[in-house]
Design a protein that fits this description.
Number of strands: 0
Radius of gyration: 20 Å
Largest sheet: none
Distance between the termini: 29 Å
Order of helices and strands: HHHHHHHHHHHHH
Number of helices: 13
Length: 333
Amino acid sequence: HVFACVSAGIGFLDAITSLKKRDMGLSPVAKLSSCFLLGIGLVGSTYCLLALIGLLTFIYVLLLDFVFIMIGGRKVSRLLHEIYCSICKDLSSYKQSLFLKSWIVILILSCVVMVVHSMILPIPCGDAAAFYMVISKVMAETGRLRPLQLYESFTTIGLLGEFHFAALMILGSGTLCKTFTSFLLLSAIGLLVDNHFFSTLRTDGKVLTVVLVLSSTSVTNYAWDGKVDLFGMAFGIAALVWSLRNNAVQDRLIMLFSGLFLGWATVSKVSQALSLAVPLFGFLVWQGCIAPCFSNTGDWRKGFSGLCWFLIGFALAYIPHVIKNIALFNEPL
């Protein structure tokens, strides 16, 4: 299922960039992480529509995953090979002491142990067991999205992560589906350590970034128990990384993808609307429209056009969510 999400994302990204005859200039790691998140949004939105009409069943989930893999599977394989060669090159040029190299190995093994440990846990704990995984289990059993009794108001929120949990339960991994968020954590780390801001970051800095993320309990506490907080975090990081590239606000294509990521971030976790969406949009308005007027550098019209495409991407991410709420509650948001 993870491979299918990446395949869907890379197929969508390559289709858009080929139409515009553009190269987004992404490194292999950043491209893989971005495509995985794009795939999660696209596939999750498709599952939302299927669940509304009662067709979120084994045959349709399997068929969709197969179609997505056929679309972009070969491109994903080539991308993974590029990443493997890049990692080997970085490690071979890493000329620090054996002590530091040993810590890298320990870090990687610790991550593996955490994932394996999460796989053998019987059930999620906390409020994940009360709602997030419960609504997914109901969808997996019935093939349809229904408001849970006494939890009707909670069903009005975005359920992007829950649709993926339901799909994995349908495919037969009821207990292991909660580890899907660990791949979101990896994609977020990939965008943090390999983006345009840190293009000059050496291997030492990249390792330190990984250690900082994985030693934060505000991340790890939500990575293994079936909660959907990391969906919003990963999409939010992607929105920041794409939006804050050099002159990004004047690039309509970059702004379109940034808007999609930010839209899915707020759909996944509504609190991102205040903590991320408002300040990020304010910054882009300043950078694209206000600052050029004061400094007489650049063209505010290009910035305004980029902001319009940013809002278009944001709105596109909300379409399945709005359809869901209209169908179930006759309330768009």
